[in-house]
């Protein structure tokens, strides 16, 4: 697994790695996605309703299956952060955009992303996602969007 997609940057932030993670999902780029993950043997990923995946090989295999259907149109919204010098925990509402026979639809997932600061910069060590509820969807829709 190559970490070359994200340059080593210990000055970068967990937010930078999170942005790279979601960009990789949106482009369906497995190399960029895996470059966001830490090198630890015990990195963990749980998708809604899925099994706990432990280790880079298991995580990569699952995302390769997901990407076989195309990129994942997902956006992190309503981010809440708890950060220390070497760890950052982000609670996010993920909005997943889908095209259906009835037109565009959105699904919402509640996710927790955990980042550790390493000599290579901030790396994802855990991603745990659960199905969202109508409440989260309503909160996202009521939040004004700021254009940059």
What does this structure look like?
There is one protein chain. The chain has 148 residues and is α+β, with helices and mostly antiparallel strands. The chain has a single domain (14-142), classed as Nuclear Transport Factor 2, Chain: A. Helix content is 28%, strand content 39%. It has four helices and six strands. It has helices at 14-27, 30-35, 56-67, 134-142, and strands spanning 44-46, 52-54, 74-83, 87-100, 103-118, 121-131. A six-stranded mixed β-sheet has the order 2-1-6-5-4-3. Strand 1 and strand 2 form a beta hairpin. The model is unreliable at 1-5 (pLDDT under 50).
Explain the layout of strands and helices.
Blueprint: H1 14-27, H2 30-35, E1 44-46, E2 52-54, H3 56-67, E3 74-83, E4 87-100, E5 103-118, E6 121-131, H4 134-142
Parallel strand pairs: 1-6
Antiparallel strand pairs: 1-2, 3-4, 4-5, 5-6
Task: Offer a few descriptive terms.
148 residues; alpha+beta; 39% strand; globular; disordered N terminus
Brief sketch in words of this structure:
Helix content is 28%, strand content 39%. The chain has 148 residues and is α+β, with helices and mostly antiparallel strands. It is globular, with a radius of gyration of 15 Å.
Please give the domain count: 1
Largest sheet: 6 strands, mixed
In the CATH hierarchy, the architecture is Roll
Distance between the termini: 34 Å
* Uncertain residue segments: 1-5
Number of β-strand runs: 6
Gross geometry: globular
Q: Structural class of the secondary structure composition?
A: alpha+beta
Number of helices: 4
